[in-house]
Amino acid sequence: MKKVLFVQSSLGLGGIETFFVRLVKELSAKGVRPQFVFLYKKLINPKLLIELQKFSDVYYWQDLLSLSVDGVGEKAKLMLPLSSNKVEALFSDCEAIHVSNALTYLCAPVYLKILNAYLGFIMLTNFHGVETNFQFTRATFETSCLARRQ
Length: 150
Prior knowledge:
globular, Rossmann fold, about 25% strand
């Protein structure tokens, strides 16, 4: 079964969020298993989450961290390192990573760096019209990260 990873800030009640619920149903019917990582656990609409979980796997950024940190806000946790073992175990067979905004676009390379050994090609797609294709080796990944910082 093909897998696709969606990195999303939250699951509030909005247009892109309700689109995801419809999308996962269609993808599931076509033999694709969607996986979601939400950056913020507190900003989740419970009804949408129930619908999403029927057809996809749902994870939270803070649950993928390499260490457990209490008393740190969700935004601060985005700066902490992810557990390579957890990320590899969950997402090494994903064929694409989709993002929906600038913040999730900046977080996606964290997964790419960990998964580089498993994936030769990743497509980062922004639902608002930006699409970036990457043919990865460690050298090209690090070069692209440096270019983006300049």
